[in-house]
Amino acid sequence: MSQLFRHPLLALGIAVVFVIATLLVVRLSTGAKTDTPKPRLITVGIVPPIRQDLDVRLSYTADISPNQVVNIFSRVDGYIAKLHVDKGDFVRGNQLLVEIDHTDYQHAVNQAKANRSAAQARVSQQDAVIRNAKLTFDRMQSLIKDQFVSQQDLDTAEVNLDAARAAQESLQAQVNQMDVALAQAKTNLTYSYIRAPFAGYIAERNLDTGAYVSSATASTSTMSRGIMSLHDIDTVRVLIEVVERDIPLVKIGQKAELRAEAYPDQIFEGTVTRIVQALNRATRTMTVAIDLPNRDRRLKGGMFARVEVLVGTHPQALQIPIDAVSRLEEAQYVYIVQEGKARRVDIEIGARQGNYIEITKGLIGNEAVIVSGKDLIHDGTPVQTQPLDPVKSKP
After folding, report:
1. End-to-end CA distance of the chain
2. What pLDDT band is residue 298 in, cutting at 50, 70 and 90?
3. How far apart are CA 303 and CA 154, in angstroms?
């Protein structure tokens, strides 16, 4: 202490520092006791539930297929003499597509005609023989009354007449055989001109002029590509696989909407036309066919599509934006605003339409449902609200 009195300035400095430190401690302790932090209000966007009719739809993805597809084969053997169409060409029904070298088939027709003419000539000759035998028999019948001829002569004349008639029947049978041979030759000649079975587009051409084709290939058409492939796309078809639980909902005649990747802003309308009355054992699904008119031929075979089948309507269904729904394991819930605080409400959902979903249990329709900001709150969190336009969320 004696040293501090010897240095009065040092003592004064220490005293000042002590006083300042004391004031700071008191200030801080006093402020901690009197300043209460105010809770931060989170702004959330809210919408009221809406009530309106809800179309119940089943959604699928599928490939678009032509209404008819056929691989063109030759029913006769020979070399391709001429191709009248190529890939991408539109052809009418019965239009000539391919000519097979028909020289041999034309010769066969001419030969069959000649054979038939010769057989018919032999029949005509036999007609004369029959007439002569008939005259002889009639003459013998007249002469035997006066006993100018014997009974044996009459019997011989009758036998000759029967033999002539039998010979005529045999020759006529040969003519009939020649008719069949001629018809077959003409058919083979006709088959050498391959025509379109229906109107459509040539999707593939696999052979060129000069290639050899065989009628045997047609018997294994499922394993071969054929000369060319013809697609009918005036109507297109989509095959969807319906899961077992939804099978009772799908019926013939129901409307369907299709969206193709190539036309994202356009909706194509179709109809359920066929239901396969059996389930695939491997997938437990049932195939359903949907046909769509395609007169402008905008839809092509092989396009990818999203399909929705309208299976019913829920009148005046209670709906909220699907973005308002939260999930925790198996539970589904929403937040609503009550007395300035967020409250969690467990719900059950139904059908979905666009970005709105049906609420079947949990809401009555007069709540303020939180859509935006729900990830920042929990049950009981104080909030301030900002109404959102529900129209912007409705499809």
Report:
1. 88
2. very high
3. 87
Nearest 5°: CA angle at 309, between 305 and 311? Answer: 170
The tokens describing 78, both together, are: 């020979």
Q: What are residue 92's DSSP bridge partners? A: none
Q: Does domain 45-54+315-393 have CATH number 1.10.3720.10?
A: no
CB 228 within 8 A of CB 255: no
Domain-wise residue ranges, the chain: 2-34, 45-54+315-393, 59-66+231-313, 74-98+197-226, 103-191
- Three state DSSP letters for 182-251: HHHHHHHHHHCEEECCCCEEEEEECCCCCCEECHHHHCCHHHCCCCEEEEEEEEEEEEEEEEHHHHHHCC
What is the dotted CATH code of the domain comprising 59-66+231-313?
2.40.30.170
Q: What is the mean pLDDT of residues 190-195?
A: 96
* Beta strand 78-83 pairing with 212-213: antiparallel
- 390 vs 73 pLDDT, higher one: 73
Q: What is the pTM for the complete model shown? A: 0.65
